[in-house]
Structures are given as C-alpha cells and as structure tokens.
Design brief:
Elements: H1 2-5, H2 8-21, H3 30-44, H4 48-58
Helix pairs in contact: 2-3, 2-4
Length: 59
C-alpha cells in the first residue's frame, strides 16, 4: 500500500506545503517562489495517488 500512497511523512510534507502556500499574497513575493519549490519537491517524492490524498487533505 505504501508504494501506492508513499510515506505518511511525505504526504504530510506536501499537505503542509500546500496549506502554507495559501498565506502568500502575490506571485512576486519571494515566499511564493519558495513555496512553489517546496511543493514541487514534496510532490516529487510521492506517487500520483499519494499526491491526490495529500492535496485532498490540504483543503
């Protein structure tokens, strides 16, 4: 099952990165660039189903 979902820590990292990205106010903000990189890095560690679960939990 973990091959389909990835590890809980990786899913939690993506969920938290997505939640933190909501606080960035504009795309010109350096925090926006950093948050997008954090999201990409977290997504790279997860298979597709794990990404879906993490994104669903971030809402």
């Amino acid at each position: 099952m973990s091959k389909l979902l990835g590890s809980k820590a990786d899913r939690d990292e993506l969920t938290q990165a997505l939640r933190d990205a909501e606080t960035v106010e504009s795309e010109d903000d350096p925090r926006h660039i950093a948050s997008q990189k954090r999201i990409r890095d977290a997504e790279a560690k997860l298979p597709m189903l794990g990404r879906i679960v993490a994104r669903d939990r971030s809402l």
